[in-house]
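Sample pair:
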Amino acid sequence: MLINFKDLPAEARVWIYQANRPFTEEELEEIKPELENFLTAWTAHGASLKAAYTIKYNRFIVFGLDQEINAASGCSIDASVHFIQSLEKKYKIDLLDKMNVTFKQGQYVAHKTLLDFKKMVKNKSVSANTIVFNNLVNNKQEFIQDWEVPLKESWHSRFL
């Protein structure tokens, strides 16, 4: 069952898929109905899941799941990963590589490999106050409060 992301409870589980490049407006117009169709049909052991999505900065696909009704199962999580892999293939985009960092540079959102980001920290191209996206958040509340944080307050701080 598809619902609006804002209607998910604070404890709803989230999964964040960051793209290595921004989606084009044309791609977003195609992707949104695909996301809606997938989440409308998403189930765990045959039971409907109360799910939502949001797209942030034309770069992040965020799934949310209200687990009060039905929790995700291994099979349902696998189905969501297969769906994301299909988007990767169709749009020639990387959404599953966790060895990349996305961060803000002024009004722009930048994406670098972890190795390049470490070099940027060392060269002082980014600072402790650079806003990074912490894709390790687990629920909607953390997503709202702790997703966009200064580097010094995220797991990325180990590079300082």
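The chain has two domains: 5-91, 100-159.
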